[in-house]
Amino acid sequence: LGDAIEPGEIPKAAYAAHGQAELCAAHLRHELLDLPETQPGLPNACWSLITPDHAVKVGGTYRPAPDGFEQIEAFISQATDAEEVRRANVGEGQVWYDWMIQEMFGPPRRP
Q1: In the chain, which ranges are continuous DSSP H helix?
Q2: pTM recorded for the entire structure
Q3: HSE of 95, CA atoms in CB hemisphere, 13 A
Q4: pLDDT (tens digit, 9 = 90+) per residue, 34-69?
Q5: Gap between the terminal Cα atoms of the chain
Q6: What digits encode the pLDDT tens for the residues 86-109?
Q7: What is the DSSP letter of 56?
Q8: From CA 12, how far away is CA 6, in angstroms rounded?
Q9: Counting Cβ atoms within 10 Å, is residue 18 exposed (0-12), middle (13-18) or buried (19+)?
Q10: Contact 74, 59 (CB under 8 A)
């Protein structure tokens, strides 16, 4: 998973590695519990802060393929994106980060 594989077209990114782990767990559930197997698209996105209120993003959706993963959808920030879009990108990136931290470590402890 993540950096430990030859992923094909999917980037080696935290978002992608998390999706790969979920796909692996779903496949194990399928095998062990004889549940229907699903073939979800694996999303990936990467946000880059340009300033504290201005960010760009790139990403796409991927699916398993014989030689790794193949891209089935893509997006990338454009030079013509409005300021509102750049500000929204900042918020999206922060929401993803907060979600990922909770996925990995659980909710924050209160003293």
Answers
A1: 14-33, 83-105
A2: 0.77
A3: 7
A4: 888 777 788 899 999 999 999 999 999 998 888 888
A5: 35
A6: 999 999 999 999 999 998 898 877
A7: E
A8: 9
A9: buried
A10: yes
